[in-house]
Design brief:
The protein has 420 residues and is mostly beta strands. The chain is built from three helices and 37 strands. A hairpin with a 5-residue loop joins strand 26 and strand 27. The two termini are 26 Å apart.
Length: 420
């Protein structure tokens, strides 16, 4: 494990200044009154962490905000350290009609009408997976390891230095599985300590998933095998032999079936002791509805929805290849995105609404009433099923959004992007 100092974010708000320190603050940070600000406590914090030049800029913006003149739409405070680092925006109230501020490449933005976000630069390296567990725990998995942060204070709670090819979090939020080469290591999410090792010599692990009951884990590998593991003992339960290398694996929500995609780009459906069938169609991505009835697959020119029990084609939706896919929590709606976003009624097969130029990552809120979608460098939050725009998280066009995650209660939304 490693511990290091994390760059801190600053929100400069009309009528108050908020300091994000290394200790756990209140819900909206540590608020300082005008007298406290001028008294030096906050000035000392900014000077020690960001330097004298940034402090001068903060003072200028602060006095502008205190004046009768309305503040500019976006006041930029350059921290002077921009180089290919990840930026995370954690929005405490993402469904407000006013979007939050987001900062990129070492810059922190302030806007009196866009003050509900918290942002900080965290680390280098592309993000593989992100999970917002609650209002104060944000997990980031990247190619060089994993880190757990306090999303309120930006404090690093624990960190893991290890090459990572794939990752998964168990349904209870207790364990993190990190795959690398021919090994999967299970980590305790609370302590950051190793819980178990799953060794498969000679098998390059490409994917991992926990069963819904959390008792088992399935791993995909390029040696053409899918392995089922007992999480408690670390022993292999079943080895499913395929013909091609396996690149993706997913459990059916009931835990009785397993879906895999191989290097041949075909979707395979398995019981634990044998293969049930193969979908002979070039497939890039798949999604299973939470009720376990349907599977959606993105093919070369369409999105196909199949009945999992019979394998019969239920719907064929026109869409670009390699579309992002997401079922709503109730399983009634399917969102597809690649260039444009379309949300479909999976019962009638008809589109509910379409949004142009919204083709990034997708995430439904836990209650299914909202959908967050990446649109280049920003994120749209839409109401479901009418598609009305609730808010838009704006950020400078320095790179596309590559991950979106709601926390389980739906009150917070985390957005990540690579800034190269």
């Amino acid at each position: 494990m490693r511990r290091r100092e994390i760059p801190h974010g600053i929100d400069v708000r009309a009528h108050e200044v908020v300091c994000r320190s290394g200790r756990a603050p209140h819900d909206s940070g540590v608020s300082l009154s005008h007298d406290e600000f001028l008294g030096g406590r906050f000035q000392d914090f900014v000077r020690s962490h960001l330097g004298e030049d940034v402090l001068r800029q903060v003072l200028v913006v602060f006095h502008q905000m205190k004046s009768a003149v309305p503040p500019p739409v976006c006041s930029c405070l350059s921290a002077g350290s921009p180089l290919s680092e990840e930026d995370i925006a954690v929005t405490s109230r993402p469904l407000s009609t006013q979007p939050p501020a987001v900062g990129l490449r070492g810059r922190f933005y302030s806007d009196a009408r866009r003050h509900q976000g918290l942002q900080w630069r965290l680390h280098r390296g592309g993000i593989l997976q992100m999970a917002l567990f609650d209002a104060d725990h944000l997990l980031l998995v990247r190619e060089a390891g994993a880190s757990m942060y306090s999303s309120r204070s930006s404090e690093l709670l624990w960190g893991i230095d290890s090459a990572v090819s794939c990752a998964a979090v168990d349904p209870d939020g207790v364990q993190l599985a990190l795959g690398s080469a021919d090994t999967v290591v299970l980590w305790d999410l609370h302590s950051g300590e190793v819980a178990k090792r799953l060794d498969a010599p000679g098998a390059a692990v490409t994917g991992i998933v926990f069963s819904p009951c959390r008792r088992y884990a399935a791993t995909a590998s390029l040696d053409t095998n899918v392995r089922i593991w007992d999480v408690a003992t670390g022993e292999q339960v079943v080895v499913l032999e395929s013909v091609f290398g396996v690149t993706s694996v997913q459990f059916h929500p009931h835990g009785t079936l397993l879906l895999t995609i191989g290097e041949d780009r075909n979707l395979h459906v398995w019981k634990w002791d044998h293969e049930l069938g193969e979908l002979h169609r070039k497939t890039w991505l798949s999604a299973v509805d939470p009720r376990g009835r349907l599977v959606a697959v993105s093919t070369s020119d369409k999105v196909h929805v199949h009945d999992l029990a019979s394998g019969q084609l239920v719907h064929r939706f026109p869409h670009a290849p390699r579309s992002s896919l997401a079922f709503s929590p109730c399983g009634s709606f399917l969102a597809t995105a690649h260039g444009d976003l379309t949300v479909w009624n999976v019962t009638s097969g008809k589109p509910l609404f379409q949004i142009q130029s919204a083709g990034g990552p997708l995430c439904f809120s836990p209650d299914g009433q909202h959908l967050a979608v990446g649109t280049g460098a920003s994120v749209l939050v839409l109401s479901v099923p009418d598609g009305n725009r609730i808010s838009q998280l704006e950020c400078p066009p320095t790179g596309p959004v590559n991950a979106i995650s709601y926390e389980p209660q739906g009150a917070s939304l985390a957005v990540a992007k690579n800034d190269h």
